Amino acid sequence: MKKRERTPKTYARITHPLVRDQKGGPLRRASWDEALDRAAEGLGAARGSFGMLSCARATNEMNYVAQKFTRVVMGTNNVDSCNRTCHAPSVAGLSAVFGSGGGTSSYGEVDHTDLILMWGSNARFAHPIFFQHVLRGIRNGARMYAVDPRRTSTAEWAESWLGLNVGTDIPLAHAVGREIIHAGLHNTSFIERATTGFEEYAAEVEPWTLAVAEKVTGVPAEAIRDLAHAYARAERAQLCWTLGITEHHNGTDNVRALINLSLLTGHVGRYGSGVQPLRGQNNVQGGGDMGAIPNRLPGFQDILEPDIRTKFESAWNTVIQPEYGMTLTQMFEAMETGDLKAVYCIGENPAQSEADSEQAVERMKNLDCLVVQDIFLTATAELADVVLPATAAWAETDGTTTNSERRVQRVRKAVEPPGEAREDIDIICDLAGRLGHPWKYADAESVWNELRSVSPDHYGMTYERLAEHQGIQWPCPDTDKIEPTYLHGRLWDEDPARRGRLAPFGIVKHDPPVDLTDDQYPIRLTTGRRLDSYNTGVQTGSFASPLRRGEYVELCPEDAERYGVSVGEEVRISSRRGTVQAPVWVDPGLRPGLAFMTMHFPDEVDTNQLTIEANCPIAGTAEFKASAIRIEKLPVSGLVSAPAVRS
Question: Which regions of 375-508 does DSSP assign to beta strands (E)?
Answer without folding.
Answer: 386-389, 399-402, 407-411, 472-473, 503-504
